[in-house]
Amino acid sequence: MAKSFRDRFIAKELLFGTFLKVPATMPAEIFGSVGYDFVVIDEEHAPFNRETTDRIILACRASGLASIVRVQSGAPEAILSVLDCGADGVLVPHVRDAETARAIVAAGRYAGGKRGFAPTTRAGDFGNAGQAEHMKSEDKRVTLIAMIEDPEAVEAIDDILAVEGLDGVFIGRGDLAAAYAGDDDVATKLRDATDRVHQAAKAAKRPVAILPGSPQDAAIQRKAGSTAFILSSDQGFLRAAASGALASMTDAVQQTG
Description:
Blueprint: H1 5-10, E1 15-20, H2 26-34, E2 38-42, H3 50-62, E3 66-70, H4 76-84, E4 89-92, H5 98-108, H6 131-141, E5 143-148, H7 151-155, H8 157-161, E6 168-171, H9 173-179, H10 186-204, E7 208-210, H11 215-224, E8 228-233, H12 234-256
Parallel strand pairs: 1-2, 1-8, 2-3, 3-4, 4-5, 5-6, 6-7, 7-8
Helix pairs in contact: 2-3, 4-5
């Protein structure tokens, strides 16, 4: 039996994914076909609704691709909705303290938590799984990842990582850079924050995900401790490929004119 995304993430296997921002199933199918391990369906910054998210999760299952949803918030109903659709986990933005991390765990787990029970969903195989079986398998399957993207979160990182049931963290360097924008040396501040999260995660034996800015940056973050890498997005790949094709074809045609 193939290992779940959560098993692989916790084991700190090297994993590669991308953000999905186009509300369609085809990007997920393409990423699955070329060998990506997971995608992050971006409900926070893209025009997804419950139906599009549901369809994309189904496409991920058909493509052998793990589906993580970046929910709009850590609200219990936001987490419950995507987990019932069968998402392999959630990426929760702006987790600033341990209290918020505990609330996420409560919303996403049955054992010791407060997740709403609905076994007639895709997650419960539409009623095929019994109550005990469904609850046990979901708690084993669902991955809960906190986004560390605020200065307050960096300061509270040890307490956040100590929350039982939280599987790991994602370092949101974009939002951190924006938060440090008024500082005299944003680059140093951001590098120190990233290092601090890596060190805390290593001490807590928790995995770290990150979005690298380049292959060289990916190598640096891998050495620091990151094991899950989110590479750009479907929109980013589309723009880069379209721009590259236009430039190369224009150059070729102009040279023959």
